[in-house]
Design a protein that fits this description.
globular, 11 strands, mainly beta, four-stranded antiparallel β-sheet, seven-stranded mixed β-sheet
Length: 120
């Protein structure tokens, strides 16, 4: 059974930091590209950052470049998102996404999300 469990969300003041984690199980994490998405109230879900299976390539949405860092620990089957210099507009539910590699092909999986609220 594939599971993606996010944690680390919460309430933080503008300019503060949060570190999100995504614990993966049920598939070969080290073979799978991973991503963080977010969805703010009334808006569509959007890509925040992604990372290759080995962690040697990362990419970021323009609105988080220089503030957020995506990383992974394949030994722990866990992906992270370090969020610094948070702004009110970063308030959203953050979702973990996996492109799981199977012998028969690729299947996409989502976590349940973790709420990050930036407010004074």
């Amino acid at each position: 059974q594939v599971q993606l469990v996010e944690s680390g969300g919460g309430l933080v003041q503008p300019g503060g930091s949060l570190r999100l984690s995504c614990a993966a199980s049920g598939f070969t994490f080290s073979n799978s590209a991973m991503s963080w998405y977010r969805q703010a109230p009334g808006k569509e879900r959007e890509l925040v950052a992604d990372i290759s299976s080995r962690g040697d390539r990362t990419d970021y949405a323009d609105f988080v470049k220089g503030r957020f860092t995506i990383s992974r620990d394949n030994a722990k089957n866990t992906m992270y998102l370090q969020m610094n210099s948070l702004k009110a507009e970063d308030t959203a539910v953050y979702y973990c996404h996996a492109e799981a590699q199977w012998p028969w092909g690729i299947r996409n999986y989502w976590g349940q999300g973790t709420q990050a609220t930036v407010s004074s």
